[in-house]
Structures are given as C-alpha cells and as structure tokens.
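Morning. Coffee machine broken again, so started the prediction first thing and wrote up yesterday's gels while waiting. Chain of 351 residues, entered below exactly as on the submission form.
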Amino acid sequence: MNATTPTFAAAVCIGRFQGLHLGQLAVIRRALALAPRVVVVIGSAFQARSPKNPFTWAERVEMIRLALSADEAARVGFLPVRDHYDGQRWVQAVREGVQAQLGTLPPGQTVLVGHHKDATSTYLDDFPGWLLDDVGSQGALHSSAVRDALFGAAGHPLEPALAALVSQVPPSTIDFLRAWAQLPCYRELGTEWASLRAEKALWASAPYPPVFVTVDALIQCAGHVLLIVRDRAPGQGLFALPGGFLEPRETVYQSALRELHEETGLHLLPADIAHALKGVRVFDHPDRSARGRVITHAHHFDLGQRPLPEVQGSDDARSAQWVPIADLAAMEDRFHDDHFHILDSFLGLTA
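Came back before lunch.
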C-alpha cells in the first residue's frame, strides 16, 4: 500500500515492545496515518520479569505513550494478550480483544500494520478479513539489542550504554530506561542475563545450535498442584513444575520421576504413580525457554483425593509446596518460562 490508500476505520499493530525502538514507533505512526483509531496489541503480557521480558505490559504501554504526541496517544488503545503458545487460541484472543475495543467493523475496514521480517512474523497472515499493510524493513533495529545494552551495563555506569542507544530508540525511551534501572529488579535481571550469556557461550563452538530435551511433572492431588520455587537462574525465585534435563540412559518417563523425587522428595510406589498418569504432552514452541531451543515432555499425574503427601524442596528447588488450583490464575506473572501455560493446557485455568 502507499500514501494514497484510503483511510480505514481502524488499524492494529502487534508486538512485544520489550524495549521500544524507532522501527516499532514508525509502525505505530504508520497505523495512525491510516486510521483514526489504533489498537496496539502488547504480546507476552503477563509473563514474569526475565531478561527477555523485563518490562510489564503496563510499563511497555507507558513507553509507547511517552513516545507519542498527546493527540496521537488519544487515538491509541492498548490490548495486553498472554502467550498461549497455541496459535489458534492466541489469534482468537487478539480478535476478541480488538472487537471489544472497536466494536464490529464492516469487512475491509480494519488494517493490520506490520512487517514480514522472519519466521516470527507469520502471525500477520492469520487474520483473514483484516487487510495487511506491510511497512517493510525499518532498519536493523531490534528490541533484543536494547535489552542487551541495558543489562550489559548492570553493575557498571549506565549512561554510556544509554548513549549507544540514542540512534535506535526515542528520546523518551532513554529517559524511561534511566528511571527503570533504579528498580531493584534491574540488577537481578542483569545477573540472570549474564548467566544466560555465559551458558550460551559454552555451546558457541557446536556445529549446530543445540536443542535440549527436558521433562516436567504436573502432580495434581485433592485440588492442589505440586510446585517448586527455583533456586537457580534462569528463573531464580519463580514458581515452576518439578523437572529438568533428560538423562542419556533414561526414558522421558523415568527422567520425570527422578526429577520429581530429587526436587520435591515425593516418592510413591511404582504401581501408584503409573496408575496416576493421565497424559503426556510435548511443549516445543521455539520461544518457550530463555535458554534457547528446549523441548519438554510434561507428564500429568492425578493422585485423586488422598491427603497431600509431604514434600520438601531440594537439589534445584529452593522449596516445594502444594498450591491450590484455584489460586493459580492469579499467579501467572510469577512462573518461570511457560510453566503457567503448561498448567493452563492441562487444567484449563484461562478457559
């Protein structure tokens, strides 16, 4: 499309905006040029803070608003959307959220503004009925570079890192990052960022990018699930399912039981745990783990209504505890990686 394109009733922009840069701002302003009303969809909306998702969705909204003029900001609405790691559910959530803000518009009156930059942009083709305005490349700008500069400066003077971003981000974002770096989480995330960088450096000489295989155990009992609190980065201090890496001489089932016992002390008779197994699902979204490409096999066990067995955190777990299923939905932003979504997949927490 070009500048002579007629005005649409509404425009939609979709992104994570985890470090607003000038390319993203250009996309939003293109949407504002095409329609009087714009909805900016904020992805990964309810994740726990991590080096990849350091900013809450409300903080990202603030970054965008600060970069717009008052007149522009008055025409923009924001829609936070969680990562369902399920394409159909995610598209449905976006459509329903946009409709809730804009109402039902005639066909051809909604334009989706974005850019097919790589495989992560295929979602742009998942909205039939919305016309696509591909704005093309906005330069070699990436939010990951903003985050790397920010966390690389943790423990060091921040101003040189911010100065290096001047050509990539709006001035208001520089000011936002300067203020945000005063939060206690900044140094903690900087430490985790450095830990992840060091871990990935160990695999830098591998002939192919590594693909890790892990296991997780979802133990359900009397209206509760068994969770650990992680004692190591990544995700130190966050809730997670008991689990870990697949051992070379184990099946995924054997690894799941071993990790369960090592991290929680839970031990049941082999026949009891085998009878309790209700299903195994593979979670393999390319972006599910901060470590890189990690494919996990989640085992769902239901122990019925028996009294809750005693558990105690050990190994990689700071603690282990039984948590009421009814409490899980309010804990979404306290989970490591996609573990909330694994629970959601089995238990229907957000249905």
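The chain is about 35% helix and 20% strand. Going to sketch it on the whiteboard this afternoon.
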